[in-house]
Amino acid sequence: xxxxxxxxxxxxxxxxxxxxxxxxxxxxxxxxxxxxxxxxxxxxxxxxxxxxxxxxxxxxxxxxxxxxxxxxxxxxxxxxxxxxxxxxxxxxxxxxxxxxxxxxxxxxxxxxxxxxxxxxxxxxxxxxx
Amino acid sequence: xxxxxxxxxxxxxxxxxxxxxxxxxxxxxxxxxxxxxxxxxxxxxxxxxxxxxxxxxxxxxxxxxxxxxxxxxxxxxxxxxxxxxxxxxxxxxxxxxxxxxxxxxxxxxxxxxxxxxxxxxxxxxxxxxxxxxxxxxxxxxxxxxxxxxxxxxxxxxxxxxxxxxxxxxxxxxxxxxxxx
Lengths: 129, 180
Hints:
The complex is a heterodimer of chains A (129) and B (180). By secondary structure, chain A is α/β, with parallel strands linked by helices. Chain A contains 3 helices and 8 strands; from the N terminus they run E-E-E-E-E-H-E-H-E-H-E. Chain A has a 6-stranded mixed sheet, covered by helices on one side. Chain A is globular. Chain A starts with a strand and ends with a strand. With 180 residues, chain B is α+β, with helices and mostly antiparallel strands. Helix content of chain B is 43%, strand content 26%. Chain B is built from 6 helices and 5 strands; from the N terminus they run H-E-H-H-E-E-H-H-H-E-E. In chain B, strands 1-2-3-5-4 form a 5-stranded antiparallel sheet. In chain B, a hairpin with a 4-residue loop joins strand 4 and strand 5. Classes of the chains: A alpha/beta (129), B alpha+beta (180).
């Protein structure tokens, strides 16, 4: 199984940086998410988590540092959280951390709504980035 | 009458050149959406709070025009057409969008705005999850989510106005107010 690395980019669309590491189990998504093919993009992430759960079966730490995501990405992120929840339900050690910039209550509220929608526990960490 | 305004003249003040921060009417393409977003970020770079709120609402409403406007640019690529204005008065910034819709969609869009404006913050958050989780409504494609986000982020009611042009077409205006 390989790492999944997608370079973040901001052009006609906004691609978040994705860095999912097999050997450390530390995963990060950061930047902004406004994509042309949202479903296909996020399917790579959910598939990677499923493969990790089947093949590696170790601890996973998922850090979100997104500063903007559109409605399609909101739906797709719900999907990612649900897959993380499934892995946790299998008994795996899964930490989900949502980092948000100081004073950005709007993104914090969206993160909380994602957690509620996926019925998953998440840590919220205020941090400049 | 548009919510957030006591009179038409109060609304018209926002369209005076001295109050306009940014104004665009024309084809709405994905490049244009990103380009105008960059423009807003540049204009508000010294005010991170307004910058963040305006751009996140702008992105939702611009995408709504991109998906739902029924006005098509007959020249070039057949792009959707719409209007985007950022204006201000002493106390507030305003994001105004406008586009043509089918007249038969008007009642649905009005009811949607009324429902959003009737909900408190917790109600809006629940309603957003309901829409996102429900099978896609063929009439809306989940477009209400953008308006809910606009209401939550702006901390104000969404202003919606629909002017019938004829039995087929109406002009749909959305105004979002953000306190300075």
